[in-house]
Amino acid sequence: MKVLTILAAFIFAIFLVSSTPTITADVSAQDGKKPPEVITLGAEAKLGSIKFNHLDHITKNRSVDGTTQLACVECHHTAQPAAEAVKHPPHKTAWPADRTTTLTAELLEKDPNAPAVNVCRDCHARADTKPKLLPEIPQVKFEGSADVTIMTNQQAFHHNCGTCHDEVAKKRPDTTAPTSKKCMQCHKKAAA
User: Fold this and answer.
1) Domain range annotation of the chain
2) pLDDT digits (tens, 9 = 90+) for 95-143
3) Long-range contacts of 75-79 (CB under 8 A, 24+ apart)
4) Pair type for strands 139-140 and 149-150
5) Rounded to whole angstroms, how far apart are CA atoms 162 and 174?
6) Are 146 and 160 contacting, i.e. CB atoms less than 8 angstroms apart?
7) What is the pTM of this model?
8) For residue 24, what pLDDT is reported?
9) Contact 92/107 with Cβ under 8 angstroms?
10) Tally of CB atoms within 10 A around 176
């Protein structure tokens, strides 16, 4: 019986050692070191969640004029030095605050010391929820507006995604990109 226990422990140890690279690869993808292919946004949204094809937005020509790929910082605006972020109002925050590099797919792939990519909700939390990285949800005063907007995750997604898609529709009338007025093209209710 003792021999069987030792043999089982030995086989288990070999299994753990041989499976470690797979576990590490999965952890690094979750670490923000490998861009995800598809991201579910608004999982709790009343209109249904959004399956955002991240890979399409970073590998295809999805710029407003359709000529270039989107830069990481067009959405991940904190992933650049603060001096760069302030050039794109209303953004003004860098994370980490002393950041010296601008996030690019190449940097993410080649620099093992590159800061992890933070998800939107790390700063733009749901209403009445404390964000992970900030003391409170950011508040923004948009140009031409007298009011301050609390940039919850819903506000951030609708502003960032909707504004970009609306600009695409203006520049490229032949586009299939949904505008901010066509909610159900992005939001999909789960089948009951």
Assistant:
1) 1-30, 35-188
2) 889 999 999 988 988 888 888 888 889 999 999 999 999 999 999 998 8
3) 75/120, 75/160, 76/103, 76/117, 76/118, 78/118, 78/123, 79/103, 79/115, 79/117, 79/118
4) antiparallel
5) 17
6) no
7) 0.75
8) 25
9) no
10) 8
